[in-house]
Amino acid sequence: MASPAATTRTVALGDVIDLERYPVDGSDAPRRRALVEYCRAALAFEGACQLPGFLRPGAVEALVAEALEKRDRSHRTDDVHNVYFERIAEADPDDAAGLLEHSSKNAIAWDLIGADSPLRIAYESEALTRFIGDALSMSEFHRYADPFGAASLMLFGPGDELGWHFDRSPFAVTVMLQPPLAGGEYQYHHHLRSESDENPAGVLGALRGTQAGRITLPSEPGTLSMFRGHHSLHRVTPVSGERVRINAVLAYSATPGDKLNGLTQELFYGRRSD
Ligand SMILES: [Fe+2]
């Protein structure tokens, strides 16, 4: 029988997140307010907010080890799609919707993440959930209820990438854990389309590399990123070298109890919960 100590959390939030620099728990209320304002301004100005050193180096190291250890239980996806995540019958190099993009990666599902994993400590904390919701200006903000996709670890080996695309969801929250030796860069074009203008010429220019305004984000380990990718075309460039690119993806929703449908679970994690 497990002793009570075995089920008690021994890792505190402050062991995982640098709360002196980023007091998301409200321990320094004026600084938390300033941080929320900073994130909102960065998201409004350039569609992305980067918080380097958000996870402590020890937590980053533990998560890299956990990802590599559980790699053989990850699920691989390898697919082609266009920038709108549609499968197309025939490629057309002169049409923004007709260019084929390639995406491949391995995902370690939420139910495989350890009880004392820094990812679980961070993701399950109310303080972090509230902070990210505030930074994204969401009045209703909840952790994802999906058993696989709530928070997961992504591994990109040599040749893996995320091709150019627009997200269906309004935001994405990630933590960089290990950049590769080369490639694996997060690039985007801020606000390339809008609700009223799909801007196909701009999309085509971005895919051909002729469109101005391409931004490459730094990839320092431990950085928390919030990104609005619904109107900003983005990609992860192909990884090269033997060092795997590893990041964590934290999923949230404006709706409580929200989760993936069985088909999407199957696609990204190779299993379904229904
Ligand atoms: Fe995306």
From TrEMBL:
The keyword Oxidoreductase applies. GO terms for molecular function: metal ion binding; oxidoreductase activity. Residues 134-256 form the Fe2OG dioxygenase domain. The keyword RNA-binding does not apply. Keywords: Iron, Metal-binding, Oxidoreductase. It holds the Pfam family HalD. Coiled coil: none annotated. It comes from the Bacteria. Belongs to the iron/ascorbate-dependent oxidoreductase family. This is Fe2OG dioxygenase domain-containing protein.
